Amino acid sequence: MYTGEYKAEVVDVFKGLFVRGGNTNTPLDHMSAANNVVFGDSGQTETREAIAQSFSTGHTPTRVFLSTINSTYRLLTCNGAGVIYANGSAIYTAANLVDFTAINIFNTTVIAPLYTVDAPTNVLLIYNGTTVRAAAGAAPTSSFSLTEPAVGNVSIGVHKFAVCFVTASSFTTPPGPKISGVFTPVEITSTGSKNVRLTGIPTGPAGTTKRIILATKSNLDVYYYVNGGTIDDNTTTTLNVNFFDTDLAVSADSLFDLLETVPLGYPGFGGLGLQKYKGRLVIVGGTGDRVYISESGDAESFSAVTGQINITSENDGNQVRAAFEHYDVLYLTKAVGIYAVNGSDDSDPSTWRVVGPIEGAVGAYHNAIGSITQSVPGLTTVHTVLIACRSGIFAFNGGVDHPALTWKIQDVWDRITPGTDSMLQLVIDPFKERIYALLCADGSVTPNLVICGCYRNGLSKENIYWSTFSFPFTPKSIAMLSFNDGSDFAYRLRIGMNSTMYKLTETKGADLGIHAVNSYVQTSLFGNASPGVVDVFRFLRFAIFGSGTASIAMYDQYETLLLNTVTQGLVAIPGIEYIKEFNLTVERLSIRITVNTAGHHFNLSSLAVLHKLWLEARPNG
């Protein structure tokens, strides 16, 4: 077979999708279409790994999170219709509940439900592995009595007493009694040299583990912890206390500022964000441009006075939506815009300095900040955080790098349905060095399209190789999770769809053992780029191996199908090069290679099209 008179255009490194302004813009080493393929270290492209069932949820999981408490893993999911589940069993049900955000912190799981209406019951939740309850806790509402039964050390004068409950998660409530919502301490006028007996001490709700007695010094109003004033049960109702005024040394005044519930407000379509920062819990998204930040070391204690940061609001709906930490700085993102917060360990959050906006064109919602564990924003190479928004996926390293990492696939990214930015989901697999994004595309208002970016060659717009992924069912949620699902204990991409969590395995073959992985690549346009020049295309030479049969189709620059009768049987031996002969006269030509049979897959390492000039100008223009 003589081919010497033909020019060979060779591709031996496949750099993924380039779909930006039409196929005539696609470089030779990129693809105009790439579905269900990934890219290897040597520049080859191959069928993605198959998926298998990971966990049957009994509902389509629109959100998934791995709760970790006492080294026990529980898969939290939501059906988008009022119920949150743990390992498939309902743990929380509420009207108008459509989604949730969660974070593992201080050996508990904090849950922020997302509701479709604003209500006072929209509050932060605590999950302890068994039950779900509102975070924090209400002050005691029942009073008690005081007497002086015996000789003691209590100073002469008026002393005021209060009581707090301690919950199972060690949260200390604001002091009570609160009678009709008003703090009403119990007073005694000590005659001096007596002790004090408290009778009828209120017991707390279920889950209360302790009660704490507070008292003031003689004729003063500051409350202190009383030595011997801790009751280590929820049943005892009588206690004798004895103290000098000088014994009252540890102030409890900050307890009066604690929120009894942590409001989540109504974030609208935007969702809620939870983040850790300097041993504190950060909550954003539901209360406009107000950010709640907990006390250090406690995810339930939020001061109504000092536990907030207020970002200057323009009242334009562009409010704070998410948060992440990078190099000890807390970054707050709006749908458009990013602010920086420099906090210190020993100061109140209300005093922390807010700088910004430091970025005015890019922002992100909570699930669009690249995550490797869902509790930690994903750090990939050189500690870069990835964030996604309507404009694309961007690298952040103290500032946003422009243009977007998705620059090469802007036409794909622009398929996002307007108004669904808040539903973007972004996760990172640092071991396979892949980025996965789940979008609402082509008019859909629920997630339906997964794109994959392989960044083995670097985290830049030039070096990420993109493709789309499709599955037997429509994906509704994605996450990178490591847990034992009964078949293995591995860190894998998990995909929520069709009443089940699925996982991306390490093996090629059929999805779920029975479904074809519809994998295909379509090359850029071969031939002379000068308008009107017509070539004769005669040979296709390609190195491919795998299993089953590959179908080969050929298209012109207008995406008109010219030939689709070519096939090639695949064998599991790398390095074999095949030649296909054909005869097409056309200005430009692209090649599509497809494997779409259950169990079949391919690995393509090089491809060349041989052609020569036929006409320098197309007849009749």
Helix and strand topology:
Layout: E1 7-11, E2 31-35, E3 37-39, E4 45-47, E5 51-56, E6 63-69, E7 72-78, E8 83-86, E9 89-93, E10 97-105, E11 108-115, E12 125-127, E13 132-134, E14 145-147, E15 151-154, E16 157-166, E17 178-179, E18 182-183, E19 186-190, E20 196-199, E21 210-216, E22 223-231, E23 238-241, E24 273-277, E25 280-284, E26 290-293, E27 308-310, E28 320-326, E29 329-334, E30 338-342, E31 353-359, E32 385-389, E33 392-396, E34 400-401, H1 410-413, E35 425-429, E36 434-439, E37 449-454, E38 465-469, E39 477-484, E40 489-497, E41 500-504, E42 519-523, E43 534-555, E44 561-570, E45 577-586, E46 590-595, E47 601-615
> Treating each run of at least 4 consecutive H or I residues as one helix, how many helices?
1
Outline the low-pLDDT stretches. none
Number of strands: 47
| Shape verdict | elongated
User: Strand content of the residues, in percent?
Assistant: over 45%
Q: Mean pLDDT, as a whole number?
A: 93
- The biggest beta sheet, please? 10 strands, antiparallel
Computed over alpha carbons, the radius of gyration is 32 Å
Helical percentage = under 10%
Can you give a write-up of this model?
The protein has about 625 residues and is mainly beta. Strands 1, 2, 3, 4, 42, 43, 44, 45, 46 and 47 form a 10-stranded antiparallel β-sheet that branches. A 4-stranded antiparallel β-sheet has the order 5-41-40-39, with no helix packed on it. The protein contains 1 helix and 47 strands. The mean pLDDT is about 95. Among the domains are: about 5-15 and about 515-615, Sandwich (Jelly Rolls), CATH 2.60.120; about 145-255, no CATH class; about 270-365. A hairpin with a 5-residue loop joins strand 3 (about 35-40) and strand 4 (about 45). About 0% of the residues lie in helices and about 45% in strands.
